[in-house]
Amino acid sequence: MFLIILKSKSPFAKSIITRTCTKPGRWYSTTGNKHYDIIIAGGGMIGTTLACTLGKNPLLQNKRILLLEAGKEKAWALPDKYTNRVVSINPGTHKLLNSINAWKHIENNRFAIVKRLQVWDAVSDASITFGDQTSPEDVSYIVENDLLIAAVNNELKQLDNVKVQYSAKVTDYHLPEYHESSSSVRLDDGNTYSCELLLGCDGVNSQVRKAMKVNYLTWNYDQMGVVATLNLSELTDSLSSLVWSTTPDHAKELLKMTEDQFVDAVNNAIWKNYGRSLVVDQATKTFDTLLRLMNCPSDTVRQFPPKIAKIEEGSRAAFPLGFGHAVNYIGKGVVLVGDAAHRIHPLAGQGVNLGFGDITCLNRVLGNTVHSGSKLDNLSYLKEYETERQRHNIPTMLAVEGLHRLYNSDFTPLVLLRSLGLQATHALSPLKNAIIHQAAT
Fold it and tell me: I need a surface site. Which of 93, 126, 285, 306 has the fewest CB within 10 A?
């Protein structure tokens, strides 16, 4: 399976491969009140994986964990056709899933390995390549969302210290004030649960984050991501997953098209000849010659994408794109994880990997907290999680944001800047390796 990412309607970059607080007394007198050491608000890929990871941590084996899942419990079976909701997971995420024995379930079903990633500019000859078909190192792995969740759930069901509450509709969160030691969560069925540590994994519209009242930097891109499963015409492994970021109006047009019209639109976006600048062409050719004289790698051989033959019926969908970042990931008795803390543009396929990186870090921090004899809500230890993850997440988010803005312009000086930058990055192995390392963790 390939992953194809398109940006338009200015597709200048292409690449192959989202308290109300009542009186404190009421929270603890409600019928059905139960106490847990950790409550995880929100399931999905991040919440479910976090619950399984913490549940399997030997240092946390005596801690009672509750996962609140808004959806209903349902049996999962591998569908005949690939679904259109897939993620590109990096080696760090792959290592995490292996550590909790979830990867074996994915491996026994289906996934695709990305050995080589190529990015090129549509209005110049500049390009960059990561990985190699013959290398033992994998760039990433394409996995269906539902399969990943099912794989983690298979392991989660074996844990006695983790309880999953399905159809859990949260109505209120109460976070501890100075004189309190527990957080409380009230459900619409009247039950109230308290905990020493509340972990917010409830997505971009996180109610946990809102209860924390932290500053949240956010904006919309005025773009939609159109996804689909495509059939390629020139490869044995003929399936490809498409993510096409474009304007809302254009996204609506793409969703309304017939399947043949949609295939033509994708092929046109990939193969269309966009207006080029003689200045940019001459500068990139001169720079390429200079790199050759200096014995630096030059990516003059470009692997062009195959033609799209057809689209899998019913696989088209769209979702809004935006940016978001919480100034603080932690508070008294509460931690934000995944999209609840940060949200980025999908052009680099790094959004969900940032969340899985949060899980790896938080699991280690909480284990160290318990090992030292401290309480789970010890702010000194939680601050380690916030500091480490922000030092990783913020540079990644800024880099993706910069790329998004840089490749949304056809202004000649900017085209020249990004083209030379792409060539230089490909030629300078230490710089390219640093990018690979940042994206892989």
Answer: 285
The C-alpha torsion from 346 through 352 and 355 to 359, rounded to 10°, is -160
Under 8 Å between Cβ of 232 and 238: yes
Q: How far is CA 282 from CA 276, 289, 299, 304, 420, in A?
A: 11, 11, 16, 22, 11
- At a CB cut-off of 8 Å and minimum separation 6, what does 268 contact? none
What's the whole-model pTM score? 0.87
Residue 405's SS3 state is: helix
Greater model confidence, 118 or 156: 156
Position 234 confidence tier, pLDDT thresholds 50, 70, 90:
low
Q: How confident is the model at residue 279 (pLDDT cuts 50, 70, 90)?
A: confident
Tokens standing for residue 288: 């390429």
Give residue limits of the domains in the chain.
2-440
Q: Are strands 308-311 and 216-232 parallel, antiparallel or unpaired?
A: antiparallel
- What's the rounded Cα separation, in Å, for the pair 104 and 163? 23
Structure tokens that stand for 179 in this block: 């004189």
The pLDDT value given to residue 119: 80
Give the single-character DSSP code of 414: H
Q: Which residue has the higher pLDDT, 195 or 122?
A: 195
Cα–Cα distance for residue pair 178/164, rounded to 1 Å: 30
Round to whole Å and give the CA distance between 303 and 418: 20
> In whole angstroms, how far apart are CA 158 and each of 256, 261, 363?
45, 48, 19
Q: pLDDT tens digits for 27-63?
A: 333 344 589 999 999 999 999 999 999 999 999 999 9
2-440 folds as FAD/NAD(P)-binding domain (3.50.50)
Percent of the chain with pLDDT over 90: 60
pLDDT reported for residue 12: 39
d(CA 189, CA 173): 14
Beta strands in 238-369 (DSSP E): 239-246, 308-311, 317-326, 330-331, 334-336, 342-343
